[in-house]
Design a protein that fits this description.
Helix content is 25%, strand content 30%. By secondary structure, it is α/β, with parallel strands linked by helices. It has 3 domains: 187 residues, FAD/NAD(P)-binding domain, CATH 3.50.50; 118 residues, FAD/NAD(P)-binding domain, CATH 3.50.50; 77 residues, Enolase-like, domain 1 (2-Layer Sandwich). α7 links the parallel β10 and β11.
Length: 418
């Protein structure tokens, strides 16, 4: 046992984490690493130990293999660190006065400090037929398993929504030989994040791989198969067009799971409102991960980030706050995607209205795109260009005013621009 793990085993406090995803797992890990010797309880609604979600839309979705690699820790690790993990345990209420949480089966668990990492849930469609069998969303291992079953040669798979998850799964479907249609309400998928110039790169990518990508469309209804009212058979568009479908994958964003926090009287606004260390309007309740709309000192405002890196890194900040200790500063938002032969990393937080400078070649899809506001880099996205995340991060955090021509010049090292 390490020195940190053996420190202060007489601590009588009880720290409870509600939410069995990556953020929850990293939080309990962080508590032990910082030497907290009290009781640690992790309550997760899913039947699995905490796992990372990116494989569900990437390697695991395609192959169904190596799921073990997605789990943050095995049961032996939790046992060795004296962490109580209860899977298939849904928390239904928080009593702030009694400092207890109540589970669906009526158990009461006392806490001195409570951390909510309840994540987000896929948004669904509010149209006729949205509940038909064969209409799928992606969040859990079981969701990924169901989607994999329809990614077959010749299957007609329609994607409603052209966000990151939708496009990733669409690429997997196309690679599996499915006949893929992507329906996007905006003029371009991802345009609100990337702006039209860079968003077009992803449009071209999918169309080159045979995807029927339609923009500026509305979905009016999902219709059952003829003679089979228990299965989806077509997507009806607002202009009357019918698109045959053997399966429909809905990717129209996710909603933070605020119900528990809201019922407990915590301040809620696009997630649970928190300070920079995740402390909510109740000083003994903290939040992390997709749920947290937390202050970001560098960005100067609250942000809620639904990406893997936030669930991975934010708990270190929050755990320090829970222990009333100094901790690391929140990191810049970061996410990545893999679609066909395109790999991408994005660092920072830009607005689609920011100026865009490109270093490299959009046509060959080997480039870095930078977003600038008032001459300062707000974000950088490297596409099929690697080992540049750290200099991009440094460029953003330096707040340096940069020369756009030097920024675009591949002969100028990024390190010389800060």
């Amino acid at each position: 046992m390490s020195e940190a793990e053996s420190a202060d085993r007489s601590d009588q406090r009880s720290f409870v984490v509600v939410g069995g995803g990556l953020a929850g797992a990293k939080a309990v890990e962080g508590l032990r690493e910082r030497g907290f010797g009290g009781r640690v309880v992790l309550l997760g609604a899913e039947p699995h130990l905490p796992y990372e979600r990116p494989p569900l839309s990437k390697a695991y979705l395609k192959t169904g293999e190596k799921l073990d690699e997605a789990f943050v820790h095995d049961q032996e690790w939790y046992d060795a660190h004296n962490i109580e993990v209860r899977t298939s345990t849904r928390v239904v209420a928080v009593d702030r006065d009694a400092k207890t949480v109540r589970t669906q089966d009526g158990q009461q668990v006392r806490y001195d400090r409570l951390l909510l990492t309840t994540g987000a849930s896929p948004r669904t469609l509010s149209i006729p037929g949205a509940d038909l069998p064969g209409v799928l969303t992606l969040r859990t291992i079981e969701d990924s398993d169901r989607i994999r079953q329809v990614l077959r040669e010749g299957n007609r798979v329609v994607f409603v929504g052209g966000g990151w998850i939708g496009l990733e799964v669409a690429s997997a479907a196309a690679e599996a030989g499915a006949r893929v249609t992507v329906l996007e309400a905006l003029e371009l998928p991802l345009v609100r994040v990337l702006g039209p110039r860079i968003a077009q790169v992803f449009v071209d990518l999918h169309r080159e791989h045979g995807v029927d990508l339609r923009t500026g469309v509305t979905v009016q209804a999902l219709e059952p198969q003829e003679g089979r009212p228990d299965a989806v058979g077509a997507v009806l568009l607002g202009d009357g067009t019918r698109i045959p479908a053997d399966a429909v994958v809905v990717g129209v964003g996710a909603a933070p799971n605020v119900q528990l926090a809201e019922a407990a009287g915590l301040e809620v606004d696009n997630g649970v409102v928190a300070d920079a260390v995740g402390r909510t309007s109740d000083p003994d309740i903290f939040v992390a991960g997709d749920l947290a709309n937390a202050e970001h000192p560098f960005l100067g405002r609250r942000v809620r980030v639904e990406h893997w890196a936030n669930a991975l890194n934010q708990p270190a900040v929050v755990v320090a706050g829970m222990l009333d200790e100094a901790g690391p500063q929140p990191e810049l938002p970061y996410f990545f995607t893999d679609q066909y032969d395109l790999g991408m990393e994005y660092t920072g937080l830009a607005s689609a209205e920011d100026d865009v400078v490109v270093r490299g070649d959009l046509a060959t899809r080997e480039f870095i795109a930078f977003w600038l506001r008032d001459g300062r880099v707000t974000a950088g996205m490297n596409v099929n260009v690697w080992d540049v995340t750290e200099p991009i991060n440094a460029l953003v955090t330096s707040r340096a005013v940069v020369d756009p021509q030097r920024l675009a010049d591949q002969a100028v090292p990024l390190e010389e621009l800060t």
